[in-house]
TrEMBL record, chain A:
Family according to the record: Belongs to the ABC transporter superfamily.
Keywords for this protein: ATP-binding, Nucleotide-binding, Transport
Disordered, as annotated region: 1-40, 346-391
Organism field: Brevibacterium jeotgali
Protein name per Swiss-Prot or TrEMBL: Peptide/nickel transport system ATP-binding protein
GO molecular function, one term: ATP hydrolysis activity
TrEMBL record, chain B:
Top-level taxon of the source organism: Bacteria
Native organism taxonomy: Bacteria, Bacillati, Actinomycetota, Actinomycetes, Micrococcales
Protein's UniProt name: Peptide/nickel transport system permease protein
Cellular-component GO terms for this entry: plasma membrane
Topology of this chain in the membrane: Multi-pass membrane protein
């Protein structure tokens, strides 16, 4: 028990350590720092010292050793031939190096050309794309000669891909051949490049699966991809990529499709690989926080041009380009560090530009916190402690689709445990990781012997939700947080009246959502609106967006045709869109504009409750930030109540007043957002928070530096 | 009972149900039609039979019994393997069928295999052919073939291959030689939809992430075709192949007529002309059995090809994953999402219950 306490102490420190060092004024953080002795000497399990006195990066170390970069790109240009035959440049003048054992991250929003860069390096550009200028060189490696990658013939490329350059794809869900066993998938490179017999291949695959931390490799070998969890699949893909000890790994958004705790473990694995094997990693990502946390060198690209590049630490501490500053400012996880107590939301929501005080770097965290809570109290939207009865009241909500034996869940726990074991063999180990594993063990009922007893509710995993309680006061936002499969969308659907729960009650206003007659349901739908993740698929491509917005009005027979047009124009203005866009089709608008349209459609019939189901998850970070601002402004202007469903803790922290954390269909924690984020009580919440990428120097980052 | 076994059992049950429904529908429709074969044959004034004699004959065929008696009698007869007697020739229907079936079965099998071979050739050429313009031309060929009527194609093939080029003898040909042209006639229109689906499936699979990953491992296009693309593209084509069986039967009727072959097709044509209901009913049942069997095989092949479709009895990980993704997707579009699950290279498993009768009745109307 005492060790558990120590662990959770360490977890707290690990979770908030760097922030804690800065937010020393925060009482709790300070006490945690004291509890563990030397907070500055925090060591990561991959051996990077994350302390304030940050040591030389791998890249610098390599450069000092006089090593040539493993991959060297100079003035690279790639152009796409458009339908009209005009070449259009996708990237221009990109320079970057990847050194042995180090990670260079190319960061950019969609369409920035980051994936094109990766494609050029591995010689797999789209059919209509071509490298037009520059050079790409791969250094000599053992017996293998130095290569000019631009000059390779298709046949030569086939010898280089897989053997000298490994590729880790974005979506583990679709990147393994579903009809082949995991073993056969991993063995592909061996079949292609070596003359190994099937027994030798099998032995090598077992070794690889074990290497990447897949438990029970003998069993996994025979399983099919769909029988593995997302994290496990990504491990298998990494095993395939490293099967021939390539000198360079290209990781193309390797964790974007994964839950945050899984993401952390995969990133740890990559760190470990490059440390142990000296593999260089070219890391492609849209997530500045991930890049900043893990990479040695950052290359920020925008519209095919490098905006800024340099050592990660320098770039984060003193971003030179306005675009980088904006990216930093817009990335939710960059600003909403766990250590920074107090709702960022209130600051964000304040209509006027931030007060001059905000820019005072000398201001202590505690002062700011006070100011922020004051700001929140004085803000027009009543806080969660309002005395009026809450608009939404959910009691004992249960909707279980299936109960499944715990086996597959212990697999996830084992996933964590194995990483822990691996970490043990690695050079360094950290308290935070141990804690994560321990928490996983506690939470997932790690003892497999208890796993098969179906009588105890904890022995089975739930698909769906069970016994969820929460209330949402009028005019506030509840954040529903959880990883995939946690049941958060099920709650959203039940709230919006799309499904009748098996038991429990949902009250919205004066409606009892679980027992509505057909007529009541119609009225109820005017009270609650749902906004989905993907506006492009939620809007009818054949209709103009104006018609889509007017659709609810037509359905409820509200107003004449002219009235409706007026309403559509009004609501479009409200979401900061030019009403002139009403005649456009969805495909003519950008993702951000479409999400504004979707929000406009939800608002046009003046609901009281809006359920956002991952409404900003598919958007680029700058667009995401704009939509979040919009959502908050609308809440203040219209007194709306929100339920905001997201897997992204940082986003939830930014918009929500209260938060409910879900894990595998069960509610593990609920409370005011500041409290849950600052002092998470449930081990799962702690684990979730600990997994948020934390760039090294964010402490140094200040609102001042971020002012654009 | 293992889930696989239970699955096969439920599939078999469905097959029997389809068979029963097809029989019932065909029997009732044939009875509802005004007039019957007995009238058509014996009331002919040229035979000079009196009204009483005709009534006696009608009585001996049971032609005037209420429909449910007739239906019950033929149902019991079919269950006992007794198909009754042809109104037209008086021969036992089972004898007629036994004589006609082998020739048609051989033709159908050859046509089917030839169609698959043709479709694969067209697919490979359209997907990997060089130069690109040639691939494009071949890509559009199936659309042309699918719209060509079988009888016209048969005539053109005879005209060109036999009379002009003299490659194949149509007058008094050998057993194998006699099969070549009908097979070709049957296969070309059949291969067209198959090729269309295959080309599309191959194009889809080639853009799949896992193919890209294999390419990044150093695989050549040829290696990918053999090791990754073919199996994944087979699934949708398999569905079409099962459905095409109905077309095969319809095609056999025309082909056998055009080439003057004796078989189930020509038997059908005669039976329709003579309103020979017992023969028609037997043919319908036999065609349905064939259709149901082929689709049963297709359904049982799915899980063999795609491991994700195995063990569908329990809520396994795949279901859980599916649930996770579908709940993550916007609720309002879940229908579309379900339909686009082919993004994972799979085809929603279909039930032959919904297809069987539909195709069957279409086939009936065509015959």
């Amino acid at each position: 028990m005492s060790s558990e306490n120590t662990n959770s102490e360490n977890s707290g420190r690990g979770a908030a350590s760097r922030a804690a060092a800065r937010a020393a004024a925060s009482q709790k953080s300070a006490s945690r720092g004291v509890g563990t002795g030397t907070p500055e000497k925090y060591q990561s399990r991959i051996g990077i010292d994350y302390s304030i006195e940050y040591p030389e990066s791998f890249a610098q170390a390599a450069a000092d050793a006089g090593a040539v970069p493993l991959l060297s790109i100079r003035e690279l240009g790639v152009a796409y031939t458009t339908r009209s035959g005009e070449p259009s440049a996708a990237i221009r003048d990109v320079d970057l190096d990847v050194h042995a054992g180090s990670m260079t991250a190319v960061v950019g929003e969609s369409g920035s050309g980051k994936s094109t860069t990766a494609g050029a390096v591995i010689g797999l550009l789209a059919a209509n794309a071509q490298v037009t200028s520059g050079e790409i060189r791969l250094s000599a490696h053992g017996d293998a000669p130095q290569l000019d990658l631009r000059a390779l013939s298709p046949r030569e490329w086939q010898k280089v891909r897989g053997a000298r350059i490994g590729y880790i794809p974005q979506d583990p869900g679709t990147s393994l051949n579903p009809l082949k066993t995991v073993g056969a998938n991993v063995a592909e490179s061996l079949r292609l490049h070596t003359g190994l017999g099937s027994a030798q291949r099998r032995a090598r695959v077992l070794e690889l699966l074990d290497r990447v931390g897949i438990d029970r490799p003998q069993m996994r070998l025979e399983q099919y991809p769909h029988e593995l969890s997302g994290g496990m699949r990504q491990r298998a893909l990494i095993a395939a990529a490293i099967s021939l000890d390539p000198q360079l790994l290209i990781a193309d958004e390797p964790t974007s499709a994964l839950d945050v705790t899984v993401q952390k473990r995969i990133l740890d694995l990559l760190d470990e690989l490059r440390r142990e094997a000296g593999t260089g990693i070219l890391f492609i990502t849209h997530d500045l926080a991930v890049a900043a946390e893990r990479a040695d060198e950052l290359v920020v690209v925008r519209d095919g041009v490098v905006e800024e590049q340099g050592p990660a630490r320098r770039l984060l501490g003193r971003p030179e380009s306005a675009y980088t500053r904006r990216l930093l400012a817009d990335a939710p996880s960059m600003q909403t560090l766990v250590g920074a107590v107090g709702p960022v939301r209130a600051a964000e929501a304040s209509p006027a530009p931030a007060s001059p005080n905000e820019h005072d770097p000398g201001r202590s965290e505690a002062d700011r916190t006070d100011a922020l809570s004051l700001a929140q109290e004085s803000s027009p939207s009543p806080g969660p402690s309002g005395s009026a009865p809450p608009l939404v009241e959910v009691r004992g909500l249960t909707q279980v689709f299936a109960r499944v034996p715990r086996e597959e869940d212990t697999a996830d726990a084992a996933d964590a445990a194995t990483t822990g074991a691996l970490a043990g063999t690695a050079v360094h180990n950290t308290a935070v990781h141990d804690t994560a594993v321990h928490d996983a063990a506690v939470h997932d009922a790690a003892d497999p012997r208890t796993a098969t007893a179906p009588s105890s509710p904890d022995a089975t995993a739930i698909i769906g939700i069970e016994d969820v309680d929460f209330t949402v006061p009028e005019g506030t936002t509840l954040g529903l947080v959880g990883e995939s499969g946690s049941g958060k969308s099920t709650i959203g659907r039940a709230l919006a009246g799309f499904s009748t729960p098996q038991s429990g009650s949902i009250r919205v206003g004066h409606y009892e959502a679980e027992s509505l007659s057909k007529r009541e349901l119609r009225d109820f739908r005017r009270t609650v609106q749902l906004v989905h993740q993907n506006p492009a698929s939620a809007l009818d491509p054949a209709h103009s967006v104006g018609a889509s917005i007017a659709e609810p009005l037509r359905n409820f027979r509200m107003g004449s045709k002219a009235d409706r047009a007026d309403r559509v124009a009004q609501v479009m203005e409200r979401v900061a869109l030019d009403p002139g866009l009403a005649s456009r089709r969805p495909r003519e608008l950008s993702g951000g504009q479409l999400q504004r349209i979707a929000i406009a459609r939800a608002l046009v019939i003046e609901p009281r409750l809006v359920v956002f189901d991952e409404a900003v998850s598919a958007l680029d970070v700058t667009v995401q930030s704009q939509i979040l601002d919009l959502i908050q402004r609308l809440q203040e202007e219209l007194g709306l109540t929100y339920v905001f469903i997201s897997h992204d803790l940082a986003v939830v922290r930014q918009v929500a007043h209260t938060v409910t954390v879900l894990s595998r269909g069960r509610q593990v924690e609920t409370g005011p957002v500041e409290q849950v984020f600052a002092h998470p009580e449930d081990p799962y919440t702690q684990r979730l928070l600990a997994a948020i990428p934390r760039p090294l120097d964010t402490q140094v980052l200040d609102l001042q530096a971020l002012s654009i | 009972m293992s889930p696989t076994f239970r699955y096969i059992l439920s599939r078999l049950g469905q097959a029997v149900l389809v068979l029963f429904l097809a029989f019932t529908l065909a029997a009732l429709l044939l009875m509802i039609l005004p007039g019957d074969g007995v009238l058509a044959r014996f009331a002919n004034p040229a035979l000079g039979l009196s009204a009483d004699q005709v009534a006696d004959i009608r009585d001996s065929y049971g032609a005037d019994a209420p429909w449910f008696i007739q239906y019950w009698q033929s149902l019991v007869g079919f269950l006992q393997g007794d198909f009754g007697y042809s109104v037209n020739s008086g021969a036992a229907v089972s004898t007629l069928i036994a004589a006609a079936l082998p020739s048609t079965a051989v033709l159908a099998l050859c046509g089917f295999v030839a169609a698959i071979v043709l479709a694969v050739i067209v697919t490979v050429l359209a997907s990997y052919g060089k130069p690109p313009w040639l691939a494009n031309v071949i890509d559009s060929a199936p659309a042309l073939f699918v719209s060509v009527p079988v009888f016209w194609l048969g005539i053109v093939i005879i005209q060109v291959l036999s009379f002009q080029l003299g490659w194949v003898n149509v007058v008094d040909p050998g057993a194998v030689e006699a099969l070549i042209l009908p097979t070709l006639t049957l296969a070309i229109p059949l291969s067209a939809p198959l090729a269309q689906v295959l080309i599309r499936a191959v194009a889809d699979v080639r853009t799949e992430s896992f193919v890209h990953v294999s390419r990044a491992k150093g695989a050549s296009e040829g290696w990918l075709l053999v090791n990754a693309v073919i199996r994944n593209a087979t699934l949708p084509a398999l569905t079409i192949a099962g459905l095409l069986f109905g077309e095969l039967v319809a095609g056999a009727v025309v082909t056998e007529t055009v080439f003057g072959r004796n078989g189930l097709g020509s038997l059908t044509a005669q039976a329709v002309a003579n309103r020979d209901n017992p023969v028609l009913l037997a043919i319908v049942v036999i065609a349905t059995i064939g259709f149901v069997l082929v689709n049963l095989i297709v359904d049982l092949l799915y899980p063999l090809i795609d491991p994700r479709l195995r063990h569908r009895g329990r809520v396994g990980k795949s279901a859980r994953k599916h649930l996770a993704t579908s709940t993550a997707a916007p609720a309002g579009t879940s229908g579309a999402v379900g339909a686009s699950s082919s993004a994972h290279g799979s085809v929603a498993p279909r039930t032959s219950t919904t297809q069987g009768p539909g195709t069957q009745s279409a086939e009936e109307s065509s015959s």
